[in-house]
């Protein structure tokens, strides 16, 4: 009677949700400060003051009918101009307002791009570990998700494995750097090698292969790490950006798609984006939040807090004997479970009130994700528990 | 290379958009007050003060991380509880928070419901005149749009025609009352007859037929007209509500789906809604605007302005010899063109600087839509032009 696959999807209780509910129950039982919840990917740092000031300023001084009225479907022209100017200045690109399409965050950027380009039976490559929703989004287009295992330990793209995975049906590759859940940032070298291979394969198969770069964590990098701007390396690129993490506004659903000015049939690409947004029911992104982010383009939430958390957690866990990837960005630590089964490891962790997420659904069994977008005090208080957990396996 | 149908959709320049651009050009040429633009469906009345006060209060007094953080996909539990309480109190229904799913406005409410229930080849009935985007939304599900002509003059549902249109493949019926573009409100009698027929057909074919009621104009009714609450008349009902017009917030994209508590396999229905929202990339509706509308549930923009406009425009045009439906709601006057071709009529209107929308794309050739969500002065100033236009056909 209803779409069977969607009923199933709606009923699947996500692991993270299960942990969330367990956390609430446990907190009620033993007190919130005794439960060390590292399962959530919600920014713990408030939005910068500029955001709230912009909201108040707009509501008080901007004409209400214009402020809350429809913008054009692709977004307010002035906002799009400001964003393209900002990107050009920062990355040396040549975008115009007509390469920017405002969206309700990264998830909608992705569904819009995927609907615009993926046809049934075509293939879209992703690299482990990858965000499980990619599979959900792709399924509705009729296209196929093809996971490619990353290099061990570094979690950079394994170019040889990628080479083997590309077929005539390959239409797109999704990259996510800084990565959720590994925290890894792809190096310039990785990006150059990947782009060279894709160009070679485009020639070999005689059709375009698109790179979709999912970048909600772009601003969350530490120690002056550079995140290569893919449009500068590869023509057929769609950038899916979100302000969720940069400005700590995940609930407000605001982001954009940037279409490379050098993309093949670039006007058709942008038209397909507009068509997909319309067909999926996205009338426009929030008219007020479009104008809010325009006033905060150069700003971010206080990232230094995440860096402090990263340093404390990474160094402490390494000292205890945990094996983990050094995260250059995002707010996750990707830790090898100390036994084969990550679920079993997470159950054991619960005995010490540590709530971790098994990474099986990210395509990487045997690993767990530890979110450090938490109060630093929680990390300090949890170190004893992490130590006891490690001791169970020594 | 891209989805052909979506490229085409993205390139189609809507008639209303064309008129919008013509209006801007013409205003620059002869002055804004000389151009009488009746083409736009954007609320002209500002949001009530309570909305802006709620925004400022939330930003100043609500914890920033919670305010701008993700809510659950179906929406904040407290907000959903408040909405279901409000609906129950107003319409005597028995909804709970778990029958409400917060959305980014009516368009996303519709795409989510249609994706949840419509399978390829199934049929969805709409009544002329109908919102052309219904066809766009349905096309992506693989289902078929079946337009049924309404009664002449009254534009109520023609039950005999509906009876003939229902087949074994009929899965849903979309109603839109108050109607865009006719302004007509379906009477209790119309709704009762429609529901009786649908129940009969459900029995005959042995499967559910859903009513999807698209209600962005529910609050915009004049003279104490009653808009029947469909859940009270028919079990298998999805209400697609939006605050766009009620609170003059069309750009903020906030609304909800209400699933009837008596719906067949109600839990599956709600799960399918959740699954569809997820698959289409709707993570959650704006976390801040969810809480804003919670504080304004009993409020609306100043509707009396639309009533004043309606009375002035309808009475004046009737006096001039125009044939038009008396609009009980929304902010449109549906006028019979004075020649056969509505496009030709709108071209003629342009000679008097009147910008009207031909209603061919709404499935009703020979009619034009006149939006009266404008400053009252524009209507007063335009009456001479309407008179001259009528005189061309006398």
Describe the secondary structure blueprint for this structure.
2 copies of one chain form a homodimer.
Chain A: H1 4-11, H2 15-30, E1 36-37, H3 49-61, H4 64-67, H5 77-91, E2 100-103, H6 106-117, E3 123-127, H7 133-139, E4 144-148, H8 159-165, E5 170-175, H9 188-205, E6 210-214, E7 237-242, E8 255-259, H10 266-279, H11 287-294, H12 304-319, E9 332-336, H13 342-350, E10 354-355, E11 357-358, E12 367-371, H14 376-391
Parallel strand pairs in A: 1-10, 3-4, 3-5, 5-6, 6-7
Antiparallel strand pairs in A: 2-8, 7-8, 9-12, 11-12
- Give the mean pLDDT of chain A: 95
Multimeric state:
homodimer
Question: Rough shape of chain A?
Answer: globular
* Chains forming the largest contact: A-B, 79 and 79 residues
Rg over CA atoms of chain A: 21 Å
Total strands of chain A: 12
Widest beta sheet: strand line-up of chain A: 2-8-7-6-5-3-4
**Segments of chain A where pLDDT lies below 50 for 5+ residues?**
none
Strand content of chain A: 5-15%
Helix content of chain A: 40-55%
Largest sheet of chain A: 7 strands, mixed
Order of helices and strands of chain A: HHEHHHEHEHEHEHEEEHHHEHEEEH
Gap from first CA to last CA of chain A: 54 Å
Structural class designation of chain A:
alpha/beta
Number of helices of chain A: 14
Which labels suit this protein?
homodimer; 394 residues; alpha/beta; seven-stranded mixed β-sheet; 12 strands
Give your account of this protein's structure:
The structure is a homodimer of 394-residue chains. Chain A has 14 helices and twelve strands. In chain A, strands 2-8-7-6-5-3-4 form a seven-stranded mixed beta sheet, with helices on both faces. In chain A, strands 9-12-11 form a three-stranded antiparallel beta sheet. With 394 residues, the first copy, chain A, is of the alpha/beta class. Chain A has helices at residues 4-11, 15-30, 49-61, 64-67, 77-91, 106-117, 133-139, 159-165, 188-205, 266-279, 287-294, 304-319, 342-350, 376-391, and strands at 36-37, 100-103, 123-127, 144-148, 170-175, 210-214, 237-242, 255-259, 332-336, 354-355, 357-358, 367-371.
């Amino acid at each position: 009677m209803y779409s069977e696959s969607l009923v199933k999807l709606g009923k699947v209780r996500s692991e993270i949700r299960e942990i969330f509910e367990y956390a609430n129950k446990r907190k009620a039982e033993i007190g919130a400060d005794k439960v060390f919840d590292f399962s959530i990917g919600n920014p713990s740092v408030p939005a910068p003051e500029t955001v709230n000031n912009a909201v108040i300023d707009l509501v008080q001084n901007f004409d209400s009918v214009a402020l809350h009225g429809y913008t054009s479907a692709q977004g307010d022209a002035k906002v799009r101009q400001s964003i393209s100017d900002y990107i050009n200045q920062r990355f040396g690109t040549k975008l115009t307002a007509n390469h920017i399409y405002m969206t309700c965050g990264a998830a909608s950027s992705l569904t819009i791009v995927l609907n615009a380009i993926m046809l049934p039976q075509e293939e879209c490559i992703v690299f482990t570990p990858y965000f499980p929703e990619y599979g959900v989004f792709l399924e509705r287009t009729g296209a196929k998700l093809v996971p490619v295992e990353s290099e061990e330990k570094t979690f950079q793209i394994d170019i040889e494995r990628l080479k083997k995975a590309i077929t005539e049906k390959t239409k797109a590759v999704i990259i996510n750097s800084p990565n959720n859940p590994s925290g890894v940032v792809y190096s310039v070298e990785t990006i150059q090698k990947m782009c060279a291979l894709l160009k070679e394969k485009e020639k070999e198969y005689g059709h375009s292969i698109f790179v979709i770069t999912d970048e909600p964590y772009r601003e969350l990098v530490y120690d002056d790490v550079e995140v290569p701007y893919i449009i500068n390396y590869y023509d057929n690129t769609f950038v899916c950006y979100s302000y969720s993490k940069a400005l700590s506004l995940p609930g407000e659903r605001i982001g954009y798609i940037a279409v490379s000015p050098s993309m093949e049939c670039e006007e058709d690409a942008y038209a397909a984006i507009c068509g997909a947004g319309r067909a999926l029911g996205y009338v426009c992104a929030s008219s007020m939040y479009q104008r809010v982010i325009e006033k905060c383009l150069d700003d971010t939430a206080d990232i230094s807090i995440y860096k402090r958390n990263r340093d404390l957690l990474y160094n402490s866990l390494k000292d205890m004997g945990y094996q983990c990837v050094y995260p250059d960005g995002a707010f996750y630590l990707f830790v090898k479970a100390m036994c084969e089964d990550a679920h079993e490891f997470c159950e054991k962790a619960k005995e010490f009130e540590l709530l971790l997420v098994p990474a099986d659904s990210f395509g990487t069994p045997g690993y767990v994700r530890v979110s450090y977008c938490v109060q630093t005090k929680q990390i300090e208080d949890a170190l004893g528990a992490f130590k006891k957990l490690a001791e169970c396996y020594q």
